[in-house]
Design brief:
It is a single chain. With 287 residues, this protein is of the alpha+beta class. The protein has two domains: 81 residues; 169 residues, Thrombin, subunit H (Beta Barrel), CATH 2.40.10.350. 37% of the residues lie in helices and 28% in strands. The chain has two helices and twelve strands, in the order ααββββββββββββ. The longest helix has 82 residues.
Length: 287
């Protein structure tokens, strides 16, 4: 009986809803109680809807900000990677250009005098006032021998003074000093007038940063601005290596010969690579 009553109430409720819906569909207007209930419900709904929409928009904005931040981080990483790659590219490009220039120099020299050039890295420099030297990463195992000339693309640097199996010590020409027991003067001439010009690079003047050239003949046609190169006489420095340019020329102390000052072509600041000159005639030289 109880279940039957519940079933009858449900049937009655469904019919009631159906009758109301049918009656509303037949009417063109709502009664004022129905309008009041609908307006009240709409007013209440808007107060719930606006905060809900604002909260939903707030969380959407946070999500958008996170996406923008993530994109900015990715762009920063890409920009940093680009800058790093650009710097590396420029460094490698400059290195390649420099080595091309140096290798072209060696090929030109080999064609002129059949010399072989070993590219060496400067690994240390001694600034001792009484023993200014530099060390390179090539030694006797690489064919380097004592008294081999050392140069750069720009000009003469010095002479190999001692050798170990894997390193060598270079005495730069800025250590030229007639009073030194290891003194090796440099026989020099003028490029383009090798047969008619001669002098001796005998010492380095630290005050003027110039090499002094002596024993220049009175009738020598040497002029200011001429390029000074090694003459090859004396069998120490091979011929044809550029030393510098004549800056001044004046009568010597006794009036019989001239002296000149020579501005060095090579720069001794921040040396990184040098060339050790191998001359075929010196294969039997003492190590």
């Amino acid at each position: 009986m109880r279940n039957k009553r519940v079933f009858m109430l449900m049937i009655g409720f469904i019919l009631f809803i159906a009758i109301i819906g049918f009656s509303l569909s037949k009417r063109s207007e709502l009664t004022w109680p129905e309008k009041f209930v609908k307006d009240t419900a709409g007013y209440v709904q808007q107060w719930f809807y606006k905060p809900a929409g604002s909260i939903a928009g707030f969380f959407q904005d946070i999500k958008d900000l996170r996406n923008v931040y993530k994109e900015n981080e990715e762009l920063r990483s890409m920009a940093a990677a680009y800058s790093r790659d650009k710097l590396q590219y420029n460094f490698v490009k400059n290195e390649n250009e420099r080595y091309k220039e140096e290798l072209q120099f060696t090929e030109q020299q080999k064609q002129m005098y059949n010399y072989n050039y070993l590219i060496a890295q400067v690994i240390s420099i001694s600034n001792d006032a009484y023993n200014h030297t530099m060390n390179i990463n090539l030694g006797s195992k690489h064919g380097v021998k004592k008294n081999m000339a050392v140069t750069t693309v720009d000009g003469l640097i010095g002479l190999v003074s001692s050798v170990t199996p894997y390193t060598a010590t270079i005495t730069p020409i800025t250590e030229l000093n007639e009073a030194s027991p290891t003194f090796n003067s440099i026989a020099a001439t003028i490029q383009g007038r090798e047969e008619h010009s001669f002098g001796i690079l005998s010492s380095y003047d630290r005050e003027t940063d110039r090499i002094v050239m002596t024993k220049i003949a009175e009738n020598d046609k040497m002029e200011v601005g001429d390029t000074v190169i090694t003459s090859g006489l004396g069998n120490v420095y091979p011929r044809g290596i550029r030393v510098g340019t004549v800056e001044t020329k004046q009568v010597g102390n006794f009036g019989l010969t001239y002296t000149a000052t020579v501005k060095l072509s090579a720069s001794f600041d921040h040396l990184t690579e040098v060339f050790v000159v191998q001359v075929p005639e010196m294969e039997g030289a003492e190590e």
